[in-house]
């Protein structure tokens, strides 16, 4: 919505003081020009694009090249141009361009988390993650995101009877979806999961605008992180092979510790991939497989909360592909009466 | 009861008088359209004659009758609701009046349309339509069924749609000005408020458009469905929306109850359900969101199942679409009622309402509702609410073992492990599901955290290993790991030395074989390190501690702590301090508590007492700041259970001052500690030490005894009590010896206990025993960490 408004060629806004079309347009082109110097072969169509940010977001060729650059053994260092480009582009404060950076977050986080250790600093990756973290911290003013669990004893807007029951006092259940944020200048290793987790939260909040390819990459990384094999990949054999290939490239297995602060956004993203309104078969299979891997991992960690969440995702996915449960269309008019 | 019944109560009374029983309204006074396959009933009345023209003339007669009836009805002020009757009654009427006039072929395969008490076969009309001649088809219908042009068109469109010819249906509707038809319906309604004198007039006025609107609105709805089938989703949504807009304008007070069985209500219900789905398919998510809210918050009088379907679809949309549009607007808010402020809250509310409808028996049980709710509540870590929801489900809906298992997971997720274990015991009963590997794992895990349950846990873990085959083969390593942990815990309560060492070595063996199966499991590496450390096999412990730190990239504080403690046990204090400092660098300040406490103790061990005091001071400031700033929403520290409290700091300082013989400072700190925790064996222990050091033996004795009264198993008090008693003459030596042996039974690795026991033996003249004890004490002290390994979790 927003991106259409700002990138549509609307001449009338040119002279107005607020952020204009030409401003975001030229910023996007600057970003593309800068990227041309980094990628081995930038698709020529991009430079001439009318909607540069959107084209950059959707271009599969750029995605492949960037993903390959991320996976080089020396990526993420101080001298990594790509990380510098991501950092600068994210700081352009253009929502469209920030979306482009978020599109690459799965690969960045995936490579980073699999490699992050004490012995090899990865300041390139960390600068980008910190920029995203700082953006979210500022946007939320450091506040926590909470959910107060409704109590059906009190009437609500969806209640059938609109009486308020004032006599029943009930305890308040306050669920913390995302804890409050503190500003961090560096990635301290014990806060790494939190910083990546917050970046993934931002990714989730924009997920409806993110291209499918990025989400599929994310699902593949979830499988790698889980360190588990998909026990049940009858039809998803091709994707499993892909993930094994990736795994080999990553070197040391890729199994990482998965604390709740990183698992929670992962589960929300996977929920979206499985059950979002826009259906995509490949994405569904990838997410389904990732859920099964994470479920197996939850059983290894014996983490009740994660067993519950992954268990219901797997069951819901099974229901979704169950032909017996194919829904009757209740909106169809009767064909005979 | 219908779901949205309440708002209609007033209207029901208003219309009650003209809602008469069907038998009275036998005369069809309004043009009514009914079509369909010839059924049994019709067949009976229309036997024999298949002469179309003959039947046609008969139909005309019926229609004249109808017109006459209409006039009469209006004159008499009679209610003209016969159009709303059940189909079966219509058929009976047809039977009675036109049995000999209209006789049609008794062939169920021929579709027929019935209207105004007349019927005609669709093949005539369809043939005309197939020729592309809409005009002729329309006029055939008009003549055949005495309809006006609008109704004929609507009927034609429906015929085409039912034949599966959606393009054809759209062509028919294109020739029809639906918009105008809708508008035409409205003025007749708009003055419905005006005539209030006679009930009859109001009724006759409203009755006319009600029926006409039913026809026109159904036509618009079918147009929307046709567009949907052609993939023109936005247009379809616009059409569908027009149906609802029109209904809202016509019936601004809601739809009367008496209409519930009516065609119009069917159309409205379908449109209400279809509109959000169309917007969703069209990718217009904010429109979809408001369509859902409109469907659920306005009064459409939809039935329970339909309302439940919409609620579920909306909840799913809210949960997974990833689109945050904002809370429902203020207009719908009612004083004191709960208004969700974001997607997740709204989804949870809807799902909970659906759950309640299910267990009240209002709608069919839908297992997916529970799964969605499980997901939503786990995501916000409120699994205790989920347990409550599961408790409320009626018996027989979910298999009981299944319910126990899910509830156990919910309780465990909320930290209520005792309730979880109780439920798991039920579900693992031999008559339920004794071999369910998930329950076994969960039970073993809970038992492994409690020394008194460890033996039970060993049993569960062995059953996990026995059942780890087939698709669960990958869980064998977890089973072994749990077995190792439970055995390790069990060893701690073991009363005999032999038993203890057997359990300990078995524990290590299990963990080792688990590691062989899961070499990359970092938790396992940590647990092995901890097990070795508690075993005082410090070299192995150090190796695993380093390995864990590498595997986790230093992201777990417990890894840093284990390494530092193992180093301190090896008496490598300065190295331990380097590790602690590195750990402090890698942690944000709210997580630093346990590390700072460790650092202070290290400073004491390094005889840098001033630094130690400085560290404690910093820690105190941190703890106090944390208490003030952190609400319930603050980030949970990485080690929840190990969060340091102010009491510990004051107590630590008191101990430090007492070791420096700063009695006043020590007393002051102890006083502070006492205000925070009034009855504590630890405080009394330190108090006793201060007394004893100052030579006040009887006061010290009193403190130690008080400490033991508070906590009979508190080892440090036991040891010092024994030590003080041993100094009080040979008579007391047996008592001292009993106390010290008891302390060693509880904590066999306590070097102080061994040391004092040695002294008792020496006093008693058992030199060989004394030598053994002193040797044990020396060896243990050489490998003593600055804090117990069990403080790491």
TrEMBL record, chain A:
GO CC term (a single one): plasma membrane
UniProt keyword annotations, A-Z: Cell membrane, Cytoplasm, Membrane
Top-level taxon of origin: Eukaryota
Subcellular location per the Swiss-Prot or TrEMBL entry: Cell membrane; Cytoplasm, Cytosol
UniProt family annotation: Belongs to the Hyccin family.
UniProt cross-references to PANTHER family, sorted A to Z: HYCCIN, HYCCIN RELATED
Record's protein name: Hyccin
Annotated source species: Sesamum alatum
UniProtKB/TrEMBL annotation, chain B:
Keyword terms: TPR repeat
One protein family per Pfam: TPR_8
PROSITE patterns registered for this protein in UniProt: TPR
Entry-linked InterPro entries: NPG1-like, TPR-like_helical_dom_sf, TPR_rpt
Compositional bias ranges of the Basic and acidic residues kind: 1-11, 41-50
TPR repeats: 751-784
Region annotated Disordered, chain positions: 1-56
Protein name per Swiss-Prot or TrEMBL: Protein NPG1
Natural source organism: Sesamum alatum
